[in-house]
Write a sequence for this structure.
């Protein structure tokens, strides 16, 4: 057993959708979260920049002695997971492979639509992960870059601007025989209702955050590293900008109040992209 925390990072608020599932599935685990709100979104940035930011945010979380790190950002998982796994002294779990593995059996050979940021879609990470499970699986990849800023603004599925944007991006999927949609960005579950309403009841939606939380549970259980405490775990959040806004909008993400949000000055995370051997 281990009472060390689970560390989670994302480019902003979106990773809280993963935290929500972790809190439901593993209520006794402490969780420490870093949202890089000063540099959101990652999805429009180059791979070298995403790698640097991911290593810095994950590096910041090492001070809490986590038992594992969840890269709750699909863009970071798509572009920087190999570098994270090599650089971090603890296991790192991404969100791409769990979502891909869950989608294939649900599709039954019909097309799977993957929704993601520009960087995630351009990386081809979901396509590779899906084809690793089923080489002949039809996949339709769709970049939806406006979804992240809409969610970061606190807009929900009932907002007319959200509905118009969902129609613009996804309207064409209705005629393509899609049976499963993968939400390939942790922000997108907050728009799930609008997406489901547009695509109809015959299309199943896979939330990569939920699938990732199941992988985390299996990983910890297999290593006898689940918390042994009997009391509820804590949640501490750290952000690189605007903690008051994060606390307000993030509570909507979690469906619970966030009690601890701390601003992190740049000197505490910038230039932390170092190999483990270089750390004091």
């Amino acid at each position: 057993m281990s009472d060390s925390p689970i560390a989670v990072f994302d480019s902003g608020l979106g990773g809280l959708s993963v935290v929500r599932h972790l809190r439901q599935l593993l209520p006794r685990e402490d969780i420490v979260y870093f949202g890089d709100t000063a540099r959101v979104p990652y999805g429009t940035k180059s791979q070298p920049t995403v790698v640097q930011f991911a290593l810095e945010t994950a590096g910041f979380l090492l001070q809490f002695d986590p038992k594992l790190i969840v890269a709750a950002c699909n863009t970071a998982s798509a572009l920087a997971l190999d570098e994270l796994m090599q650089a971090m002294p603890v296991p790192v779990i991404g969100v791409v492979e769990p979502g891909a593995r869950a989608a294939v059996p649900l599709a039954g050979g019909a097309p799977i639509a993957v929704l993601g940021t520009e960087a995630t879609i351009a990386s081809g990470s979901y396509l590779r992960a899906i084809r690793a499970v089923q080489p002949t699986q039809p996949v339709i990849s769709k970049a939806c870059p406006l979804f992240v800023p809409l969610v970061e603004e606190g807009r929900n599925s009932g907002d007319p601007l959200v509905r118009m944007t969902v129609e613009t991006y996804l309207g064409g999927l209705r005629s393509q025989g899609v049976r499963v949609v993968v939400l390939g960005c942790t922000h997108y579950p907050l728009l799930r209702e609008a997406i489901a309403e547009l695509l109809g009841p015959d299309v199943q939606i896979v939330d990569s955050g939920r699938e990732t939380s199941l992988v985390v549970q299996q990983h910890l259980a297999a290593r006898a590293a689940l918390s042994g405490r009997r009391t509820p775990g804590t949640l501490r959040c750290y952000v690189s900008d605007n903690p008051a806004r994060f606390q307000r909008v993030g509570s909507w993400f979690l469906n619970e109040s966030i009690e601890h949000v701390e601003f992190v000055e740049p000197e505490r995370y910038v230039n932390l992209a170092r190999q483990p051997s270089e750390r004091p």
Residues 251 and 257 are 5 Å apart (CA to CA).
